[in-house]
Amino acid sequence: MHDFDMISHLLRSNPFHISSLLTVSDFLGHSGDAQGAANLIERALYAFERSFHPTFKVNSRNILSFNYYENRQFYLILFRHLKYQSQKGCWRTCFEFSKYIFSLNVEEDPYCMSLLMDFYALKSAQYSSLLEIFKVHEKEFSLLPNWKYSVALATYLSGNTRESEVLLSEAILYYPRIVIALNDSHGLNLGLESLIQQIPLESRIGLKIVESIYIERFLTEWKNPDLSKWIKRGLELVITNPMLESEISKSQQCKDDNYSGIPLDIYRHLFVCGIPIKFSSLELKIADAKLPRELASKDIRSHDPFPPEKGVPSVFDGDSFNGTVDRITRIAQSVLSSFFQ
Fold this sequence. Notes:
Blueprint: H1 4-13, H2 18-30, H3 34-50, H4 69-87, H5 91-103, H6 117-123, H7 127-136, H8 138-141, H9 145-157, H10 161-174, H11 176-186, H12 193-198, H13 205-218, H14 225-239, H15 244-258, H16 264-273, E1 283-284, E2 289-290, H17 293-296, H18 318-339
Antiparallel strand pairs: 1-2
C-alpha cells in the first residue's frame, strides 16, 4: 500500500519524480479525474524527453532493455499516454504510439503491443499500414488470432474482397471461437452447427485469453450489417474445403507448438489495459484464467506492474542506492586524500 499523502508531498517537492507521477496519475485515474491523470503522464513524458541522451533519437531504431527499472518506467509512461489519447478518440496518434512502443523491443514486446497495434490501425483506417506491418512480422503475427482476423478485415475494407474471404476462412479455421462470439453477440445467424461439429474448440488457457482479449476489444468493430454476408462467405469456404480435415490437423499442431502456459507479458498487458482482473481472489475474469501463486503472492505496483524475473532494480532502491552512495563517497575521499598529500 502506498501512503498517498506522503507521495503527493514528495511530488510537490519534486515535480518530476517519475514513480510519484505514475502513482498519483494512477490514483487520479481511478478517482475519475482523467484529465488530471493525463496531465501528470504528460509531465513525466516531458521529464524523460528533457533527459534523453544526445544520441537517443526518437525517430530512429532504439532498443530499450525491459530489464532495467528506469526503462520500464518509460515504457509505462508511453503506454499510459497512449491510453489517455484513446479515451479522446485520437486513433491515429494511438496507432503511431503503439508502433513506437513496439519498436523499442520487437523481440520481447513486453507490453504485448502486437495485441493492440492492429486495433488502432483499424480504428484510424490505416489499412495499408496494418498490412505492411503484418508482412514484416508475418512469421510471429500469423500465430496471433487478432492479426488473423484483422488482416482479413483490413484486406476486405481495402477493396480486395476475394483475397479477404480466403484470409477470413483461414482465421475461422484456426480460431473458430472468435466467429462464434461474433455470431452470438451480433445475432448474425451464421449457422455454425456444422463448423462446431467439425472444428474442436481450444481448451488452452493461453490461447483462450488472447482470443478473449480480441473479442473484448474488437466486438464493436464487427458490428456492421455489411460484414455479415462477407463472414458467411468466409464460413462457406471453410466448410466446403475439401482439405478441411488436414487443415484442421495442421492448425492444431501449430497451436500445440506455440501455445503453452501464459506469459508474464500477457498479465502485464491485461493489467495496464484495465481489462477486468480480480487479483485479490486470484481469479482472472477473462477466459477464467488464474494468476500463478508466485505472482498472486507479490505486491502489484502500479508504477511497475509485473516486472521481469531478471529485472534490474533501480539504482535508487534500498541497498542499490546505498551502495552507489558508498562508492561515490569512497571515490571522493580518495580524490581528496590524493589532492592533499
